[in-house]
Amino acid sequence: MSLETSSKNNGLMDKRSNRISVLAPVSEVDRFREYRRMWATFRKSYSSMAGLFIVATFLILAAVGPSIVPFPEDALGSIHLERKLQPPDATHWFGTDEVGMDIYSRVVVGARTTLWIGVTITGIAILIGVPLGLLAGFGNIWVRESIMRVTDVFLSIPGLILAIAIVGALGPGILNAMIALSLVWWPGYVRLVQSKVLSIRNETYVEAARSIGASDFRIIFLHILPNCMSPIVVKASMDMGMAILGAASLGFLGLGAQPPYPEWGAMISIGKNYLPDWWWYTLFPGLAIYFTVLGFNLLGDGLRDMLDPKQRS
Question: Which residue segment(s) compose the domain that 274 sits in?
Fold first, then answer.
């Protein structure tokens, strides 16, 4: 009897192991199919693909721009008065400015500055806003009310006006402009994450984790935060464009990057004094800002459609 029982047990274990070995690849296949579905959803939208192309081009220019421009020294403030305010030609594709610097070289090199600005502002805003949003959504009523009332105070003031006031107190400069914009950018993430946490904090899987004794820290970072990542990624992609536009606005007002720093907003600020005769001075930095912001907005729309569960078939 013992031999028969052991053989039956071995048979059951073999069947169970075979079942596990069969099921494991299925989960990988399902995951692969989900990735394919997401990519197919993204690829169907021409605007999303256009946004991806624009952002990819911007990232490539930011990475290799200083090594491919014809006059890299012009990005550092080199002066050539003998060729000042020349119109676009075969040598200077975007023309030259009032001191003879090649505008094409400065626009391309400025892509790295712009990327640094966008990533810094968005990253700091996420680091501040997401933890506060998690606490506001999962904490007790006192913590929630305290965080949200402070957030409401920041949201009640127009972001650019508050950033101008902060830069006015700190002094003009690219670093102070990024600090100012970061301090006014985080409330949006608090609102977003807090509303998402409130909608999922009572889900079955959260209650199951709580019933087996999981700590609040474990529940937040292993069960709640991963389910908040989709809207965070979408908002971050769109905020990159808006942060670049905000930094360019401060640069245009003379509160951001200071000449001869190759920043698009500062270039437009100086170039406006030479309109309309020397139009190329403002046109090409303005187009760079326009297409970069447009690319990140289109990419954000595509990511939203791709990651939105309602889009799943």
Answer: 45-311
What predicted TM-score, i.e. pTM, was given to this entire model? 0.81
Plot region of 86 (φ>0 → left; ψ -120 to 50 → alpha; else → beta): beta
pLDDT tens-place string over residues 63-113:
998 888 989 888 888 888 888 899 999 999 999 988 889 999 999 999 988
List the CATH number of the domain containing 211.
1.10.3720.10
Structure tokens at 274: 């030479």
> For residue 172, is the peptide bond before it cis, meaning its omega torsion is within 30 degrees of 0?
no
Residues 6+ apart with CB under 8 A from 50: 295, 298
User: Using only C-alpha atoms, what is the Rg of the chain?
Assistant: 26
- The total of structural domains in the chain comes to 2
Do both 132 and 51 map to the same domain? Answer: yes
Q: Which two tokens stand for residue 126?
A: 């996420």
List Cβ<8 Å contacts ≥24 apart for 194-200: 194/133, 194/134, 194/136, 194/137, 194/144, 194/147, 194/148, 195/137, 196/133, 196/137, 196/227, 196/228, 196/231, 197/133, 197/134, 197/136, 197/137, 197/138, 197/224, 197/228, 198/137, 200/224, 200/227, 200/228
Helix, strand, coil abundance in the chain, percent, nearest 5: 80, 0, 20
For residues 210-237, b (16+ Cβ closer than 10 Å) or e, as one string?
A: beeeeeeeebbeebbbeebebbbebbbb
